[in-house]
Design brief:
It is a single chain. The protein is of the alpha/beta class. The protein has one domain: Aldolase class I (TIM Barrel, Alpha-Beta Barrel). The chain is about 30% helix and about 15% strand. The protein contains ten helices and ten strands. Strands 1, 2, 3, 4, 5, 6, 7, 8, 9 and 10 form a ten-stranded mixed sheet that branches. Helix 4 crosses helix 5 and helix 9 packs parallel to helix 10. The longest helix is centred in the middle third of the chain and has 16 residues. The protein is globular, with a radius of gyration of 18 Å. It starts with a helix and ends in a 19-residue tail after the last strand. The relative contact order is 0.14.
Length: about 300
């Protein structure tokens, strides 16, 4: 579906873009569960070097960090922008210009970080930019908590999907993200993403991804059994036709008053090794792991409105 200003108005007047289906009239200024009204807000647009190697490469991914989030995990590392506390309004025309500017800076791709609640506006900006010479692959970088009907808006626009698959257990997703239906929604979303992209395609020289799906899974402390269920599901469903990125970078966030006691520590090396051994045992071959000590590093850029 080609997006138009009229269609955007229709979708924003009764918002059901994400699984929260909050029906907010965002066009009139009301805010949805995501914390945003109809106007696009973003916190940064710049080259980003901390994604998986096939996304960042040596030149950096052209990442646009949007404000707000439809999931609101209690352990969120991007809490400043997820809550909508950091963000600058930008127009659809300005967003299309940003995409072209990132291409001129040598970005490997355009990386849309948590854009789901602005999906109609982003689709229109992509159409405009492509009409003005944008040729880079488009990466849709997501919590995984998506509506399939919304993802269909991206068909023909998105080349690479980079979703999380955070939880298998509804108990965990309810406790940490107030979303007991997380696995049901995220697994259906990933199926739609894979339908659109198919197996991974990489450029021979640079090993940058041109098309495909990478599913990220962040281990949480004490939850290796849930991680194993997620990896088993992904491998049973997709074999090695997707990439799986197994992350050990969980760090207890500061300033999160709702953080449960069990999340106030990092993942131990033993927990991470146990999950990696399981992934190897079941035959996962296409993927990424992180080195020890990753949780001590910061993968967050400054949300200082650069590039906006």
């Amino acid at each position: 579906m080609e997006m138009t200003p009229e269609k955007i108005k229709e979708l924003m007047q009764d918002c059901t873009l994400c699984p929260r289906r909050c029906h907010a009239d965002r066009l009139s200024g009301s805010k949805g569960f995501c914390g945003q009204s109809a106007g696009i807000t973003a916190a940064r647009a710049a080259l980003h070097f901390w994604e998986e190697p096939c996304i960042s490469g040596s030149c950096g991914s052209g990442a646009v960090f949007f404000s707000g989030c439809s999931l609101q995990c209690v352990f969120c590392q991007n809490r400043e922008i997820a809550l909508g506390k950091a963000g600058r309004p930008i127009s659809i025309d300005r967003l299309s210009e940003i995409f072209l500017e990132l291409q001129e800076k040598g970005a490997a791709n355009i990386n849309l970080v948590t854009a789901g609640h602005f999906l109609p506006q982003v689709c229109l900006a992509l159409h405009k930019a492509k009409g003005q010479g944008l040729t880079l692959p488009i990466v849709y970088n997501s919590s995984g908590y998506e509506e399939v009907s919304s993802l269909k808006l991206l068909e023909g626009l998105a080349d690479i999907y980079l979703p999380d698959l955070k939880y298998h257990s509804p108990r965990l997703s309810a406790r940490y993200s107030h979303a007991p239906d997380y696995f049901q929604k995220a697994s259906a979303a990933i199926a739609e993403m894979f339908r659109q992209t198919g197996p991974p395609v990489l450029t021979p020289r640079s090993a940058l991804m041109k098309r495909g799906t990478i599913v990220r899974h962040l281990l949480l402390p004490g939850e290796t059994a849930d991680s194993k269920r997620i990896l088993r599901y992904l491998h049973d469903t997709y074999q090695n036709d997707i990439y799986v990125s197994i992350l050990n970078q969980y760090t207890p966030p500061t300033g999160s008053p709702d953080l449960p006691e069990e999340l106030r520590r990092c993942v131990s090396p033993e927990e991470y090794e146990k999950v990696l051994a399981f992934a190897d045992a079941i035959g996962i071959e296409q993927g990424y792991i992180q080195e020890g000590g990753t949780a001590d590093e910061s993968f967050l850029p400054a949300f200082d409105f650069s590039g906006l």
